[in-house]
Amino acid sequence: MVASRPAFRWIITLLAVIGACTPAYAGGVSGRVMTPDGEAVSDVVITAVPTAASVVLAKPGTKAVMIQEGKQFIPFVLAVQAGTTVDFPSHDSFRHQVYSFSTAKTFELKLYGSGEIGSVMFDKPGAVPVGCNIHDNMLAYVYVTPGPYFNTTGSDGGAQIKGLPAGTYTVSAWHPNQRGASPTQEITVTADGSVDVKLELRLKNARGQRKPGAFDEKAY
User: What is the pTM of this model?
Assistant: First the structure.
């Protein structure tokens, strides 16, 4: 059973740091996700999407990794650009069967064990919950972005997006525990200033990976 906790309101403050080295590039976006009580929040995907530019998919061969170890997916939230292939290697001595029935990507990898790798190409933006047909406690998310400007907050609640060309962007934040649509705000990145962006997320009860149970599925 997944433990629940009261809904919190998270305040996300993003600082777009503008560099003056060239007129075409303006540093990037840095931000920190905190609770109203000052608690750092990890696993939040922050994206900056150009509002007046065509979307370019990741180059063929772009790779990312989500491992299976100790009946857990690592990381819990993996952000990738559309067009990226994600490898799902197993570090466990028993077998897993990784799957998703999401709208953004439906797939199922056959049973495989230690030293083997299943791979999936994610070609459509959206949140993709990932589970294991054998170990019900396992849950993770692949969050697929339309463009290359994104990052995921770490244990300190911070993240940076570097190398943004000057222009107008829609900045948003996503977390698997959010309530409702992702908040967004439009910013203009220039060569001679900075932009402070505050986004607020309403959260529902936590939904994360549960710890493995006492029963070890040795038959698999």
Answer: 0.81
